[in-house]
Design brief:
The protein is α+β, with helices and mostly antiparallel strands and 80 residues long. Helix content is 26%, strand content 35%. It has a domain at 33-80. The protein has helices spanning 53-62, 64-74; strands at residues 13-18, 24-29, 33-40, 45-52. The longest helix has 11 residues, at 64-74.
């Protein structure tokens, strides 16, 4: 299962865990992803997306249809 947000494109980042002795070991910073079903009344259909929680907050603020329209204007997604 890929850990990539379908709307924002957030993906895992890599870095180091730094101990008290300043020894560095590799680690992975994973995005906070959730599976969520949305109903779009303008299109009269349900969609299921794996999105980051920051994208979910933006959807709650703008609305799912307006958020998808903004992304399609930028050319990041294709809206039917």
């Amino acid at each position: 299962m890929s850990k990539v947000c379908e709307l924002t494109g957030k993906r895992p980042m890599f870095g180091h865990s730094v101990s008290h002795s300043n020894a560095k070991t590799n680690r992975k910073f994973l995005p906070n992803l959730k599976k969520k079903k949305f109903f779009i009344p303008e299109l009269d259909e349900w969609i299921e997306l794996k999105i980051s929680v920051s994208a979910l907050r933006t959807i709650n603020k703008k609305g799912i249809y307006n958020y998808l329209k903004d992304l399609s204007k930028k050319g990041e997604i294709k809206l039917n």
